[in-house]
């Protein structure tokens, strides 16, 4: 597993999921907080990974359960509610430049409606995600007040031609 998956850059597909897991043998972790009888985080804990990322939140026998927040080495964060070690429901990803992605997560992946704002609070994307990919009808807002509707029809995106979900 080993960490955050993000293909973020303005003008490209934004997909943020988190699969950091204490079961990954390649990632070392330091736990601050209560442990259960098996030495697993249990209750409110801070887990710092060898990648310098850290998670602060509630655990049940080693699995993230309840409100929690990842702090990534690049200054970005991902906050939401975890069920059985996966982000579920509304999540907020804050980019290192202050931009924000508000989205709906199912089993740790973006699935459902989402909105993205730049660092100044301007709406830059509104649409749907399926399995961490923009899907269906989406609206992309450019700084010059230009709005582009992306959907199942052919479109031009960053000089590349393709369907709205083929970025």
UniProtKB/TrEMBL annotation:
Gene3D superfamilies: Histone H3 K4-specific methyltransferase SET7/9 N-terminal domain. The lineage of its organism: Eukaryota, Metazoa, Chordata, Craniata, Vertebrata. It comes from the Eukaryota. It is found in: Chromosome; Nucleus. GO terms for molecular function: chromatin binding; histone H3K4 monomethyltransferase activity. Residues 21-37 have a biased composition (Acidic residues). Keywords: Activator, Chromatin regulator, Chromosome, Methyltransferase, Nucleus, Repeat, S-adenosyl-L-methionine, Transcription, Transcription regulation, Transferase. InterPro entries: MORN (IPR003409). Its main location: nucleus. This is Histone-lysine N-methyltransferase SETD7. One of its GO terms (cellular component) is chromosome. One of its GO terms (biological process) is heterochromatin organization. Its EC number is 2.1.1.364. It catalyses: L-lysyl-[protein] + S-adenosyl-L-methionine = N(6)-methyl-L-lysyl-[protein] + S-adenosyl-L-homocysteine + H(+); L-lysyl(4)-[histone H3] + S-adenosyl-L-methionine = N(6)-methyl-L-lysyl(4)-[histone H3] + S-adenosyl-L-homocysteine + H(+). Residues 1-37 are annotated as: Disordered.
């Amino acid at each position: 597993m080993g960490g955050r998956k993000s293909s973020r850059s303005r003008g490209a597909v934004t997909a943020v999921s988190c699969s950091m897991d204490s079961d990954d043998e390649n990632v070392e972790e330091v736990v601050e907080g209560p442990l259960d009888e098996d030495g697993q985080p249990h209750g409110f804990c801070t887990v710092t990974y060898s990648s310098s990322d850290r998670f602060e939140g509630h655990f049940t026998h080693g699995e993230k359960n309840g409100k929690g927040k990842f702090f990534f080495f690049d200054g970005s964060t991902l906050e939401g509610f975890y069920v059985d070690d996966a982000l579920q429901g509304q999540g907020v990803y804050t980019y290192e430049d202050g931009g924000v992605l508000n989205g709906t997560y199912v089993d740790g992946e973006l699935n459902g409606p989402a909105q993205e704002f730049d660092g100044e609070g301007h709406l830059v994307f509104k649409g749907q995600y399926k399995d961490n990919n923009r899907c269906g009808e989406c609206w992309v807002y450019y700084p010059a007040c230009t709005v582009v509707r992306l959907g199942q029809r052919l479109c031009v995106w960053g000089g590349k031609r393709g369907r709205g979900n083929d970025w």
